[in-house]
């Protein structure tokens, strides 16, 4: 295996790779919006062709009840470790559309950045590994390790079909370690390996009252307004100390000792840096924790949207018949989504005012995940980052959620290397999302180094298997 | 003047009148939505042609900074009283569109009802008087009184241009009494004359935080969520006793003595009847008042919409950058919109959490209005209802707001006869708005009777002018 040749190949084909990435971003693969189902199918087909062209074997489009997953593998190196590479080609909704400076699905390059919904989360990042594998396969007709690829189209809706799919194909998906690039670096020259992810529980809370909208002149003051009731319910979910006011909510949240917390704080941004990243002037939240701890060690509730009543220009004189809030809980280590769901359901039913009705619909659930930084694959990843970026990565914690991480842990018994190439300023989930193209180049080199280090350092495998209790 | 001939003419031309009304309803004259500006202009032109065809003089389309007003007059009976007939041809937004059983601007007749946005509020009702005037002018080439008509296109956005327009044309608009059909009967066979209207103050409250939406995983728990802050602010605007929790808000609300309140309660529906009308199982609001009192004697705040964050299918993992609530206050007798506005602004500024910013935009203001039921024109209206509907009307109070009523009182010094033909079940402002066509027929007869009674009973005029302090 010549790593040098592969690195050279990747450098020489950089312009073509960026052209392809732009093609990839052009598909409006918004998984939460049913009108994009066909776009998602077309994108899956495009991706499958691309994986086939890269030289991978057994490329297939796997149907699910919602959006297809694209699978590919290369297993021609018996005895070598197997890496499960995961990514997602679906994206967040692009709205608010009027805040984009260029259309979200007509990607443009400005300066060093490629702008477009999904450019960074996660098309740009997952495509890094496709380019790296191709570079190996074109130059050496082989990969340094065995590889199984899962690129799904449902991550942004909480990966609802991933768990049954992995369960069904548990044997076929056996691997030694998973690799995901869908997290952030601390800054352009500060790579990071995330050692934990928060879990998530997303739900819609609907409050309904009158059968239809009522005239606010004729009925205002005598009929409870479901939108007002919804606001009252939601407002009560946080107490004055910035804690979630649901009985039992914090019961299982993992406690960290002061020295451990101090060590964790040192790996993340301080409050001033955090505020700069968020571009806000002051922080908010649970007392007794700094901002980085609040987003990584502690749970949170984000109200991500409300739809109720009239939202057009001016004001409409109505009491709306119903209103819906979208609640996005982020769960800390040791919180279990189903247990939290039960607590939340019970509490919401209890605080529903008597003159209205409420209903909860679960959108997605994901467990929190923790990765041991001493795992040999993490050490290989750290070295790969040093080769690709010239800097040793920091072991950080992430406040985000990739459902696959906890599923791989639970169902396949393997840890995930979270080799993220996004930046704090990448605006993922927001308008004007962008991918820093130098990270695309360096990412491909880092991926190549990682695969080669894993392949070379075969003994790690036995150790890892032993330390994980065997698989 | 032959009332009989006019009544006969109206009966004979009923089918044509309904056909014309359907044409009228077909214009999507949503005044709050800029995209309908041209529809509104087209409708104004149609209405002007219709008034001209009816035989009215000096028909003109009067421009305003927003939507035009249509004026017409007939002043060929010197010495007779002058009636200022007001109506509005603009309508509320039609959404939520998916709850309409037929498209809102493709009116259909089912049973005795004409369905369509504006069929009742106010196109159907104002058209009654156009038909009545035409019946007189075709059969007698004259009206029994002098008439000035103002049909505006901005009522549903709070009549923002009516006040300056009346001020500018104060002399030209001089009249003895105003006539508006834009209120409700108590039931199909229970006509009503409203003696009071609540005022209104509509505003948008915007809360903003981060420069752009933030990823709820990376920032959730450490950056204040403007939508959450908005909910907290709005939730705090009502206290546990169902009262608006803004200091000073109730300071000027008119106090009614227990016997007066008892008399008022008798004119409106009891709580069971009120709940049937609203189609809800239980009431809500300020303790110590029944439901009818809460909507007529007492102020209210209706949250008529919230727009914030993501409102599409599923959940988006964001902290939205901003959120807007639409607040619709209804004001009780003696509350002044500008004074209340100052109280509300001060209070909202005070309760804005420190980590976000808030801003208030006023959409419209209207003063409450009171009409003396002993005014001779009210007596004529009562008799006209008895002739048109076979029942003496009840003097009621309305919880709604027609800005014109207080403006006519303040600027022209005249009372308004609120001769409403809507029904509690007409679903005004809601999906599937409908106009009960028997009320259209009976309304035309009532209007004819009213105009004839006013013209015959000339001495009332002197009395009324004296009692009002002369004009």
Question: What count of domains describes the coordinates of chain A?
Answer: 2
Oligomeric state of shown chains: homodimer
The tally of beta strands of chain A, per DSSP, is: 19
Classify the helix fraction of chain A into a percent range.
Answer: 25-40%
Radius of gyration of chain A: 23 Å
CATH-wise, what's the superfamily of the largest domain in chain A? Answer: Zn peptidases
Largest interface: A-B, 102 and 101 residues
User: What is the name of the CATH topology of the largest domain in chain A?
Assistant: Aminopeptidase
CATH class of the largest domain in chain A: Alpha Beta
Q: What is the overall number of helices of chain A?
A: 15
Describe it.
The structure is a homodimer of 471-residue chains. Chain A is α+β, with helices and mostly antiparallel strands and 471 residues long. The first copy, chain A, folds into two domains: 3-197 and 370-467, 3-Layer(aba) Sandwich (Aminopeptidase), CATH 3.40.630.10; 199-253 and 299-366, Alpha-Beta Plaits (2-Layer Sandwich). The first copy, chain A, is 37% helix and 21% strand. Chain A contains 15 helices and 19 strands. Chain A has helices spanning 3-12, 14-26, 37-54, 119-140, 162-168, 216-219, 226-235, 258-267, 271-278, 291-296, 337-351, 376-389, 403-412, 437-456, 459-467; strands spanning 57-62, 69-74, 82-88, 108-110, 113-115, 146-152, 177-180, 192-194, 196-197, 199-208, 214-215, 300-309, 318-319, 322-331, 357-366, 369-370, 394-396, 416-419, 434-436. In chain A, the strands form five sheets. Chain A has an eight-stranded mixed sheet with strand order 1-2-6-3-7-18-8-17, sandwiched between helices. In chain A, strands 12-14-10-15 form a four-stranded antiparallel sheet. In chain A, β1 and β2 form a beta hairpin. The first copy, chain A, is globular and about 80 Å long. At the A-B interface, β10, β11, α6, α7 and α10 of A face β10, β11, α6, α7 and α10 of B. β12 of chain A pairs antiparallel with β12 (300-309) of chain B.
């Amino acid at each position: 295996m010549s790593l040098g040749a592969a690195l050279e190949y990747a450098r020489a084909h950089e312009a073509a790779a960026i052209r392809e990435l732009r093609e990839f971003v052009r598909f409006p693969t918004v998984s939460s919006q049913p009108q994009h189902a066909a776009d998602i199918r077309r994108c899956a087909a495009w991706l499958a062709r691309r994986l086939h062209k890269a030289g991978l074997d057994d490329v297939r489009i796997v149907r699910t009840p919602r959006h297809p997953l694209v699978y590919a593998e290369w297993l021609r190196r018996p005895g070598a470790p197997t890496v499960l590479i995961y990514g997602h080609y679906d994206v967040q909704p692009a709205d608010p559309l009027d805040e984009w400076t260029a259309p979200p699905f007509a990607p443009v390059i400005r300066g060093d950045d490629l702008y477009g919904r999904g450019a960074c989360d996660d098309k740009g990042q997952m495509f890094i590994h496709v380019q790296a594998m191709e570079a190996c396969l074109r130059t050496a007709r082989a990969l340094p390790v065995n590889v199984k690829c899962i690129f799904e189209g449902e991550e942004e809706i909480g990966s609802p079909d991933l768990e049954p799919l992995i369960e069904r194909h548990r044997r076929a998906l056996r691997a030694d370690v998973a690799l995901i690039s869908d997290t952030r670096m601390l800054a352009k020259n500060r790579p990071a390996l995330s050692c934990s992810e928060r879990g998530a529980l997303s739900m819609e809370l609907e409050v309904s009252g009158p059968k239809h909208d009522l005239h606010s002149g004729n009925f205002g003051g005598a009929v409870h307004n479901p939108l007002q009731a919804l606001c009252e319910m939601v407002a009560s979910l946080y107490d004055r100390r910035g804690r979630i006011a649901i009985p039992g909510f914090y019961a299982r949240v993992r406690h960290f000792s002061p020295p451990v917390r101090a060590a964790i704080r040192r790996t993340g941004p301080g409050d001033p840096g955090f505020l700069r990243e968020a571009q806000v002037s002051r922080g908010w939240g649970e007392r007794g924790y700094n901002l980085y701890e609040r987003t990584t060690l502690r749970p949170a509730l984000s109200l991500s949207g409300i739809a109720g009543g009239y939202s057009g220009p001016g004001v409409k004189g109505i009491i709306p018949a119903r209103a819906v809030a979208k609640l996005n809980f982020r769960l800390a280590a040791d919180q279990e989504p189903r247990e939290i769901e039960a607590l939340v359901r019970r509490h919401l039913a209890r605080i529903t005012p008597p003159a209205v009705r409420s209903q909860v619909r679960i959108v997605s659930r994901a467990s929190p995940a923790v990765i041991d930084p001493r795992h040999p694959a993490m050490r290989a990843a750290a070295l790969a980052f040093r080769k690709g970026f010239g800097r040793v990565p920091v072991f950080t914690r992430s406040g985000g959620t990739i459902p696959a991480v906890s599923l791989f842990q639970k169902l396949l018994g393997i840890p995930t290397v979270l080799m993220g190439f996004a930046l704090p300023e990448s605006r993922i989930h927001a308008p004007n999302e962008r991918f820093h193209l130098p990270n695309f180049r360096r990412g491909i080199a880092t991926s190549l180094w990682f695969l080669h280090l894993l392949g070379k350092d075969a003994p790690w495998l036995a150790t890892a298997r032993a330390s994980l209790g065997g698989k």
